[in-house]
User: Fold this.
Amino acid sequence: MSLDKKIRGSGHFIDANYPEYIVLRDVHEGDVKGKMELARTTKLDEEDDGKPKRGIFKPMHEIFKKRKNKKIYRYANHYGEYVAYRIAEEIGMPACIVDMAKRKHVNRYTRKTSDIEGCISYIHKLQGDSVVSGITILEEYRREVMEKQGIKTNSSDNNNIDTIIKAVDWYLRKKSDLSNQRINEILKSIVEMTVFDCAFGNSDRNDDNWGIWFKPNEEDINQRVELYPTYDNERILGFMEREDIVRSILENDESVKRYHNETLLSRIGFPPEKEKVNYKDMINYMLEHYPEWTRSGLDKVLNLKEKDLEEILDECEGLEDSYKSFSMAIFKDRRENIRQCLNEYYLKQSSRKYEGEEL
Assistant:
């Protein structure tokens, strides 16, 4: 798959230490290995690579087991963030640029210095822009619309695709002068984002992991608002699992299928479940209720071939083969099941048409 890519993140670890990168603030206070907001410093004579100047450093997760061998278990969540970005880039879906990165960490007790593996997810909004998170939109919609209409509601409604679509539609009409066509394009991008999550096993698209991007400095009114590029995609394709668990699951093909069917659920759901639903059920529901937008999203994800994902995984410096095999197995099975969902949908549509002609 060949696309014109002028700016791309790196799958090789870049040095994210001072003075090239400075810490603006700790995203999670008190967590010495937590996320940090970074800013890149550039000299006047340096060539700008075109990437945003600010980003969030997300470290690799690891846990320390106090056993006889004192083993440290590693995860690959930072690779997941990069792989998700590259997949989105390949299929033409906006996503925040990601670099694999290493940063120095000083242990507060021993004062020993070590490298922390992680990634930088760059912040795309410019000065004067604002990003309104999904939770802000949904809470306002539930309070101003649903509750006033006497509709009982709770936080689980924030993960209901129908509520999300209605809330964003209501919010955009209230806060902007967008055309109906442009509003529908933004709603379509939300459905396509959900299809992306279903196709690639992202199980954490909560109401704080997406937002609407307002860009008041754009000349064209209809370009002043869009869905913010996707971010926090580290749970894609099983990358958030511990390395020893991944190797254990890979020992049996049925274990892989059972894992991604029962664990990698869609965070965004539909009534009455509303959240944490099987991805096939979610795709079938969206095909039934948002057919045009869902088919558009499925066309995009199915455009990614096995060799494309293999090339992306090979870009990842130091990624263990077990994770590559694990993610490829999940991808192949999901791709086949998605095709089945589409075929069943078209058969159902043909049957409906035939019955209508008979009547």
